[in-house]
Amino acid sequence: MLSNLKPQAPDKILMLIEEFKGDTRQGKIDLGVGVYKDPNGVTPVMRAVKEAEKRIWESQTSKAYTVLAGEADYRNALAAMVLGDVPADRTASVATVGGTGAIRQALELARMANPDVTVYVSDPTWPNHLSIMKFMGLPFVEYRYFDNETRGVDFEAMKADIAKAGKGDVVLLHGCCHNPTGANLTLDQWQEVVAILEKSGAIPLIDLAYQGFGDGLDADAQGTRLVASRLPEVLIAASCSKNFGIYRERTGLLIALTENAEARDLTQGAMAFLNRQNFSFPPDHGARVVSTILTDDGLRGDWMAELEEIRNTLLGLRDQLASELRSLSDSDRFDFIARHRGMFSRLGATPEQVQTLKQESGIYMVGDSRLNIAGLNRDTVPVLARAIVEAGI
Ligand code: PLP
Ligand code: TYF
Asked: What InterPro entries would the database entry show (predicted)?
């Protein structure tokens, strides 16, 4: 039976990790997979995470199962971090296996509620969005998002395309720090998106994987909070992988805002059911680390300070790269790098130019010319800038 399996196309981002490892050149630069690295190239365990783990180790007396939905302390604390004020009478939530698990289950929930659902997804988007929907056999339509000329959002095109989503369809939006482009909606643009969804009755699914990596924890949640305050039904897939640096702990949360308390209870039941079908109890360790941090003023403050250092490092690298490119190219055509937010920017280079950067300069970025800003440091920024200009980008 198993010999009937068809080979699966590998994940191009993950493949790049192996390719980079196999490159023996000195001075190679990894701008591929979206993992934060400090200026020494290390993905640190955050201070507050270490301390929370110590406290958990000292106080935990059992590893027995918890509850299908995941611990309430975690769900409440993370929902509050995402939403600010949580409307308890209409909020359902379950802990999931990472943000990816939350996305997967949001899509399954949408299909349970509406078997004819079509998902509208940005072009481009995180490749796993497409891969999961294809695997599920879920119909999806891409909406225009990125303007290749300005490297900003093509908002008129986006509006025209998402307006085609009908009642009961899902519109998948990146809450902040768009992956792979780095181009984001302004708050005014979020207002317009809300007005479109209000009119059509399509339901937003907000993928929030980088809260705190753009302009700050609250600033990055502004769009999500606006949507949550204005629309009757909203799905949110939150990830703690990046902002708590606990990638491998697989810590996510699916939040559903419903029309009323009755619908909340139905939705809560359906989401716990989905956990049971897919993996039963959700992972607990990462969730407990997060709730320990968020419910303790000292730990929370220290975590926020470290997250801000990370954010400022990214912003500093963006400014440095944009300014190096301004002087080397004698133009302002790379200024978008300073305007983009989050870990990524899409350069707008051709696949051939991306290949040249790899072959000639040992600089690895994803084939669509997405670069991970966190893969840089103050010394490698000028190297990248020179290589970009030399490759004729
Ligand atoms: N959504 C986007 C856009 C991402 O880039 C990621 C990153 O890995 C995720 C969701 C989910 O992350 P995780 O499953 O590691 O929590
Ligand atoms: O886009 C990225 O690089 C991150 C990490 O299958 C990632 O979101 C990449 C590929 C993948 C899972 C996570």
From this structure: Aminotransferase_I/II_large, Asp_trans, PyrdxlP-dep_Trfase, PyrdxlP-dep_Trfase_major, PyrdxlP-dep_Trfase_small
